[in-house]
Design a protein that fits this description.
By secondary structure, the chain is an alpha/beta fold. It has helices at residues 3-18, 21-27, 48-70, 91-96, 125-136, 156-170, 181-193, 197-205, 222-237, 258-264, 277-290, 297-306, 311-328, 334-345, 347-350, 355-366, 370-373, 380-396, 401-407, 413-429, 431-444, and strands spanning 32-36, 40-45, 75-80, 146-149, 176-180, 209-213, 241-246, 268-271. The protein is globular.
């Protein structure tokens, strides 16, 4: 047996200790070793859903086990087995049906990250435009380096890997490398320990485009900072493109050497803000579309309303919801989604105010049916209740005017604006009405 395969078997034994019997049988029994070298390991999974679940739920556990038994960090590549369309296909044809892995072997890029499936919104519009410009002309724009910063889970990694994939697809002769700062540091330490510093330096200095993720981890690592400083200078002098991400503005990286921070600030710095509700819904709908899944709109909206500041967690919630639905043979419903959100964020998050909840409370307070509230009725009491519901939706949620209008009977944003102005005017003139609105707000908390 291949030595690396033996080590992988030890990894699986270790993993088995950390998960339930059912989880191991479901997700790891079909996880097959294919190959491994110094930098990466390739594992085969039976389908894309299996891959999504493994990567989201057990990625860290697998990485920890690999590091323990292989003695180093490895990039994990997944090969998704596609069933052959013809029963009489040859072994060679069947082999071609394998998606070899989701990474460019040399570049370490994940080919799933593209500009096409990067959902653009107000919070990332400028960053997307800058990334596209760099991707079209690496090393030929003033945006060098390009540094993208944001809180975790907002799409930095997707965006910079989309740059790399775009470059490789359009200029395949260019040498592109994507690396996390942690991987760079471990490579550097390994090179010192094994007298391979020259090979290490050469391997990075040969690139045309260098993408480094999470450079904040260079803080306090003085030798790594020194090495990266010289690499940065060398690539910059050669006109090579450098793209970086960090979780905060470079000025806030207090434990980075000043001269390195200065280099980071010499190009273009762009940030990504948390997406608004419309963008979050679009992200989830795109995710479901890519996986050829039909998710009810109200469930999509509920997930998007529940998780505001972390796209990765939101997408993970969708994957968990689908897994729970599949394993329990249940329909994808709001109640099932609430179980997922409760498991991720706790009971309080499930009780978070939603447009649907606002509609229920307003209908109850004004003694009108929800059917009438969402309908076309222009009866005064119903119309006022609808206006209040739209007003409160704007007050207590981050939903856009279009989303609010769509929720309350497919009305346009101008109708929502008019409703809000009407309610605001009535609040100034009618103390009893003001008290009613306050009581509804208290019910929503």
């Amino acid at each position: 047996m291949d030595e690396n395969k033996k080590i992988w078997q030890e990894c699986k034994k270790e993993i088995k200790k950390s998960v339930s019997f059912q989880a191991y049988q479901t997700w790891f029994s079909d996880l097959t070793f294919m190959s491994a070298d110094f930098e990466q390991i390739t594992l085969q999974v039976p389908n894309r859903f299996h891959y999504e679940w493994i990567e989201n739920k057990y990625g860290q556990l697998i990485n920890k086990s690999l590091k323990k038994f292989f003695g180093r960090e490895l990039s994990v590549n997944y090969s998704i087995l596609v069933k052959p369309e013809k029963a009489d296909s040859t072994p060679e044809e069947r082999a071609e049906k394998l998606i070899p892995n989701t990474f460019h072997r040399a570049s370490r890029l994940n080919v799933r990250y593209t500009f096409t499936n990067f959902i653009e919104g107000k919070g990332n519009q400028f960053a997307k435009a800058a990334a596209s410009s760099v991707a079209d002309g690496p090393g030929q724009t003033p945006f060098n380096p390009l540094l993208v910063y944001s809180n975790p889970g907002l799409g930095k990694t997707h965006l910079i890997q989309a740059i790399g994939n775009h470059i490789l697809n359009n200029q395949p002769s260019l040498r592109v490398i994507y690396v996390t700062s942690e991987k760079f540091m471990h490579d550097f330490i390994f090179s010192i320990q094994n007298n391979k510093s020259t090979q290490f330096a050469q391997s990075y200095r040969k690139v045309d485009v260098l993408l480094v993720d999470d450079v904040q981890f260079f803080q306090t690592k003085e030798q790594t900072q020194e090495q990266f400083f010289h690499l940065f200078n060398d690539l910059f002098q050669q006109g090579k493109q450098i793209i970086l991400t960090t979780d905060r503005h470079p000025n806030e990286l207090t434990h980075l050497k000043e001269r390195l921070v200065s280099r980071f600030q010499s190009g273009l710095i762009v940030d990504i803000q948390p997406p608004d509700l419309e963008t979050r819904i679009a992200i989830l709908m795109k995710k479901a579309e890519n996986e050829k899944l039909n998710i009810p709109y109200d469930v999509t909206e509920f997930l998007a309303e529940s998780i505001k500041d972390d796209i990765r967690m939101m997408e993970g919630a969708l994957v968990k919801l689908l897994a729970l639905s599949s394993l329990t043979r249940s329909d994808v419903t709001i109640d099932l989604a609430k179980k997922v959100i409760k498991g991720l964020l706790g009971e309080k998050a499930v009780k978070k105010t939603s447009l649907k909840k606002i509609g229920q409370e307003v209908a109850s307070s004004f003694q009108v049916t929800e059917k009438k509230l969402y309908g076309k009725s222009r009866v005064m009491d119903v119309a006022l209740a609808r206006q209040v519901a739209m007003f409160l939706s704007r007050e207590v949620t981050d939903s856009s005017l279009d989303i609010i209008g769509k929720h309350f009977g497919n009305r346009d944003h101008s109708t929502v604006i008019h409703s809000c102005k009407t309610v605001e005017e009535k609040l100034r003139q009618d103390s009893h009405f003001k008290k009613t609105i306050k009581e509804i707000k208290n019910q929503l908390q």
